[in-house]
Amino acid sequence: MIPQKGATLSSSSADIESEQAYLTTLYQRLDQLREQADNRLRAILLEAGGTPQGRTQREATRAHYAEQLAQFNSVENGLCFGRLDFSADSPRYIGRLGLFAEDRDAGPLLVDWRAPAARPFYLATAVHPEGVTRRRHLRTRGRVLTGIDDETLDIEAGDGTGREDVTGEAALLSALTANRTGRMRDIVETIQAEQDEVIRSGLPGVLVVQGGPGTGKTAVALHRAAYLLYTYREQLTRSGVLILGPNTTFLRYISQVLPGLAETGVLLATLGDMFPGVRAHAAESPAVAAIKGGTDMLDALENAVADRQTLPDDFVEVDHDGYPLRIEREVLLAARTAARRSGRPHNVARQIFVTEAIHQLSQQIAERIGADPLGGDNLLSEADLAETRRELREDVDVQLALFDFWPVLTPRQVLRDLLSDADRLESAGLPAELLRARSAGWTPADVPLLDELAELLGVDDTLKVREQQRQRKAAIEYAEGVLEIVEGSRSLDFEDEGAEKDEILSALDVVDAGAFVERHEVIDTRTAAERAAADRTWVFGHVIVDEAQELSPMAWRLLMRRCPSRSVTAVGDVAQTSELAGTNSWEQVFEPYVAQRWRIVELSVNYRTPAEVMAVAADVLAAVDPALRPPRSVRSAGVTPWARRVPADTLSEDLIAAVRKEAALIEEGRLGILVPERLEESLGADLVAAVPGAAIGEQPDLLNHVALMTVRQAKGLEFDSVLVVAPDEIIAESPRGLSDLYVAVTRATRRLGVLHTTDLPKVLASLA
Ligand SMILES: Nc1ncnc2c1ncn2[C@@H]1O[C@H](COP(=O)(O)OP(=O)(O)OP(=O)(O)O)[C@@H](O)[C@H]1O
What we know:
Blueprint: H1 13-46, H2 52-74, E1 80-86, E2 92-95, E3 99-100, E4 108-112, H3 120-123, E5 132-141, E6 144-152, H4 169-177, H5 193-199, E7 206-211, H6 217-231, H7 233-239, E8 241-245, H8 248-254, H9 257-260, E9 266-270, H10 286-293, H11 296-306, E10 315-320, E11 323-328, H12 329-341, H13 346-369, H14 382-394, H15 396-405, H16 411-419, H17 422-428, H18 446-457, H19 462-493, H20 500-503, H21 507-510, H22 513-520, H23 528-533, E12 542-545, H24 553-562, E13 568-572, H25 586-594, E14 598-603, E15 605-606, H26 611-624, E16 632-633, E17 642-645, H27 651-665, E18 671-675, H28 677-690, E19 706-710, H29 711-714, E20 719-725, H30 727-732, H31 737-745, E21 748-756
Parallel strand pairs: 2-4, 7-13, 7-14, 8-9, 8-12, 12-13, 15-16, 17-21, 18-19, 18-20, 20-21
Antiparallel strand pairs: 1-2, 1-5, 3-4, 5-6, 10-11
The structure holds adenosine-5'-triphosphate.
Adenosine-5'-triphosphate binds next to α4 and α6.
């Protein structure tokens, strides 16, 4: 464990002066580059008109400079944070961004933390110094250097204060003990060796990062995204990286880390955002969500779609061409069998259903009107039959009748109808528990079902494709016209110039009409993340899942569809699972997709929770599963966690008194109050009345000094002080209640208090 004092070597004022001078040079260069990007951006914004291709190129250049500007702005704080000195090389400065002098041959002024050259900053130790003699952490406020922490890595020269398992002790300790702000900070200045291994692991394959609370899984996941985008830029800028988090509050909590790392091209989303056009954030019971998350839903959804392919009891009659036309059950049955046998998605197979039904009906008509009264062959020719089929196909009454038996369906329509109709649920083989009002909002657990239905239903895009082909043909004809004009004018220009004519390339020599059209097609200039958000079938270059233990098997199916390359990083902790459809085994999650071909890395050091709090958490963890070991705390806070029994009828007042006391103790820090679901509303209302501005509700604003929420909402978050209310109820509320309590007590970075109205649960006996 790190002692509460940093192992800093003294640095002279001359050092401070020269480092400040260097820092100033770096900021001057940053300003210069910023100004250049700004000027170019302004110039582009002033341009107007031009060809479609010119406009497209302009838009791409505009986006490029806008992104560059955003990057330069995002590194304003902490631009440079480190320096490496080598025995046989000049010093190397490490920062959030790489910077070169105007003369690029002069070498880098600042090395991007993600570049291979920056790696010793995170890995070098006194035992394995990698040629580094000294690692220097530069502490800054704005553009001013406020301090220097040095570590001497050369054992001979050093004073032995360095520790082998922690790099940059003083800087790390200062980051860990700083007040929380309600927004996660990046950790580039103090990434530890075991975290660095994960962050820089290669792009391909499934990588699981298992680690107890506070081991930096979220931090590592975000820095890995930044590293991958930097290292595989070509590949990933086109396809994008998806980061999936557990809820919107959490996404807001982590939202500032990536821009701070100069990365803007990532899609941050929750499961509820993964079906374009649907915002699925309504709540539902954990038991219902668990049913929806199980793979039994696959058969049920297939049944639900099959149930929409109906048959009449006997026949239906429509008016065709002034005569009654009977559409018999047998005809529809044969058409349905043919369509189902095709194995195509419902909406695509509809073509087969219609074609087959019309074929059968045309035979029926042929038998009626073409029958030879003398008993010979049917009198209708093939051409007559084709005409009959065409007439049937174009007959609106026939179309409508066939539509009833094999309708075009959307995922939303099928799922909404299914979940709001007891008969449909029963017929699909689903429990009545899933029944809800038609007007109910979509929930996150609905999203994988919508996605699965989208696959089962497919899209009949025959008409769209035909229209696109027609448009392209028209464009090519137009282009041919344009090229002919160009060619025509060339022959005029060079009519009399003999040999020279053959030596000059014309437009037709370098471009055919098809290529010409392609060049003039409007290119989509949205970023990969923007396009991905709007496209259900988007394939990401890499997918990162945080709190991955909470995802249901159905949710994993959705994600794997978005990532056929199986380039996935899953970070989580199987001891913290609260969702009933979540997992306690990574093997079970990944086996179906990649068999044994997945890697697991375990993080073992807890950077968040001090040892005193972790001792309490360890007892809870032992009750969750005696085989699990808690992560080792990197520091102690010197504060003993406490518990207080209060009468149930004064819980609210006692809580408010405790809130006032804790809030004063943590000064500018953040206080989190974690309550059972049953008490959330009433305690929240009382709290806001007594402490105006306290954050409550579905999406509490974590920037507030005090926030009250359920444990489920607090997943992945942290506070300087945590008050856990009614732990017995938290345990009793869910079959995974002990895991929830484990999550609750491990949210604290400094102080933990428990208010209980009944006997303290056995797992918290150490607080008695
Ligand atoms: N190398 C580091 N340097 C500085 N701070 C760190 C480092 N690693 C982790 N932290 C800090 O520790 C805290 C916990 O990290 P994080 O939230 O990523 O943990 P986690 O493993 O995702 O936790 P949980 O499973 O409880 O959600 C954060 O405040 C994070 O910034």
